[in-house]
Amino acid sequence: MSDHRIAPVAAHEPPYYAVVFTSVRTEGDNGYGETSDRMEELVKEVPGYLGMDHARTPGGLSITVGYFRDLAAIEEWRGNLDHRAAQKHGRAHWYESYTLHVAKVERSHTFERAQD
């Protein structure tokens, strides 16, 4: 059994922002996995990026939440040329539909069960 543990992004001191991207994908990978991995590495370079949570339902609904210290960090990520190219390709090839929400986090806390 692996020591790798899945855990949500820890709470940060508010205020900060959550960018919620909810999507339904088209059939097949069509290069999505490779691009997604690349975007995940690129966003880590944005000053003010705090982390990301991701979940997918068996029915194909995917939710990704990126956390950012401020709106300037979100704008930097939004303006990244590689990210913009991936967005354009996504609309043409990878997504049946998606919704994007940007929310200000005003309260945040973490719970973690003690390990034996």
UniProtKB/TrEMBL annotation:
What enzyme category does the UniProt record give? oxidoreductase
Which intervals hold domain ABM?
15-88
One of the entry's Gene Ontology molecular-function terms is: monooxygenase activity
EC number(s) of the enzyme? Answer: 1.14.-.-
Q: Which InterPro entries match?
A: ABM_dom, Dimeric_a/b-barrel, Jasmonate_Hydroxylase-like
Q: Which domain of life is it from?
A: Bacteria
- Which is a Pfam family this sequence falls into? ABM
> Quick check: keyword Oxidoreductase in the entry?
yes
Q: Which UniProt keywords apply?
A: Monooxygenase, Oxidoreductase
**Protein name from the UniProt record:** Antibiotic biosynthesis monooxygenase family protein
Organism whose genome encodes this protein: Streptomyces yaanensis
State the taxonomy lineage.
Bacteria, Bacillati, Actinomycetota, Actinomycetes, Kitasatosporales
